[in-house]
């Protein structure tokens, strides 16, 4: 678990001048806690690994890297995302072979983002304050960062959002609460209608799951069957080039 030793001001100065290039801090809402989003190519609301037209989003907790990591990928590189790039994504092969095949294809309708956009090797992030490790206030970080996820949903309008892990599920359910007590107590998925203003609404499914890397294979596939049923009900086909789900 890495932590930064020094003042927050010194830390951000070092990150911004690394490699003798001034990096752009595109979100400083959590700067007082030692966190920030750095990139010269995108803003935090653009952090979507996959096509912005994707109907299906997988939402994780936060991107894993050193605190202050500079995002250097371009929008084109984000759009050309390959889930084989990291073991985190491989478990989705057991969730739905059809979904994963589509994800890897040129016809991909799937994208990934995170609830929190700031990089850190753990969450909550740990920083050193006066020589002692201290966890940042995770609730405040999530609150600060939630505006970026909400902006993404309003801009790109996914049809299905798969929440990966209990912290993501509880937080997203707080943004988009279930419609009734039955959904609150028992449902593992439900449909939500978002008011976009100007008499415009957008409906999407929320799929709730424990962290997919930690659930057993039976529950992975149970989740996949549920997702496939939702896609069928919405008429979303998953073509991979050689096969399709419909």
UniProtKB/TrEMBL annotation:
Entries under InterPro entries matching the protein: Uracil-DNA_glycosylase-like, Uracil-DNA_glycosylase-like_sf
Domain of life of the native organism: Bacteria
Pfam families named in the record: UDG
SUPFAM superfamilies: Uracil-DNA glycosylase-like
Domain Uracil-DNA glycosylase-like: 50-168
Name this protein carries in UniProt: Uracil-DNA glycosylase family protein
Gene source species: Hymenobacter humi
């Amino acid at each position: 678990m890495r932590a930064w030793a020094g003042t927050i001001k010194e830390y951000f100065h070092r990150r911004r001048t690394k490699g003798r290039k001034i990096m752009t801090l595109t979100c400083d809402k959590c700067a007082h806690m030692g966190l920030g989003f750095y990139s010269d190519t995108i803003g935090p609301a653009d952090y979507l690994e996959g096509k912005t037209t994707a109907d299906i989003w997988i939402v994780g907790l936060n991107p894993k890297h050193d605190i202050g990591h500079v995002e250097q990928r371009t929008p084109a590189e984000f759009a050309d995302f390959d889930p084989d790039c990291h073991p985190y994504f491989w478990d989705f092969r057991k969730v739905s072979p059809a979904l994963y095949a589509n994800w890897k294809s040129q016809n991909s309708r799937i994208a990934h983002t995170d609830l929190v956009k700031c990089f850190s090797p753990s969450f909550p992030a740990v920083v050193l304050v006066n020589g002692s490790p201290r966890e940042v206030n995770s609730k405040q970080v999530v609150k600060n960062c939630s505006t970026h996820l909400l902006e993404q949903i309003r801009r790109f309008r996914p049809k299905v959002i798969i929440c990966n892990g209990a912290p993501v599920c509880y937080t997203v359910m707080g943004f988009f609460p279930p419609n009734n007590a039955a959904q609150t107590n028992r449902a593992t998925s439900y449909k939500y209608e978002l008011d976009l203003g100007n008499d415009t609404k957008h409906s999407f499914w929320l799929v709730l799951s424990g962290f997919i890397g930690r659930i057993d294979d039976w529950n992975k596939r149970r989740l996949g069957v549920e997702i496939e049923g939702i896609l069928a009900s919405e008429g979303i086909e998953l073509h991979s080039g050689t096969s399709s789900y419909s």
